[in-house]
Amino acid sequence: MRVASDALVRALADGEPHSGADLAREFDVTRAAISKAMRKLASWDLDASAQRGVGYRLARPIDLHDSRALRRALAPRTVGRISRLEVLWEVDSTNRHLLASPPPPAGELAVCLAEFQRAGRGRRGRRWRAPLGSGLCLSVAWQFATAPRDLAALTLAVGVVARRAVAEVAGLEVALKWPNDLALDERKLGGILLELAAEAQGRCHVVAGVGINVSLPPASLATLSDWPRGAIDLATAKRGAPPPRSRLAARLIDGLADLFAAYAESGFAPYSAEWRAADFLNGRRVQLDDSAVSATGIARGIDGDGALLIETAGGARRRVLSGDVSVRST
Question: Which residues are annotated as catalytic?
Answer without folding.
Answer: 123, 188, 328
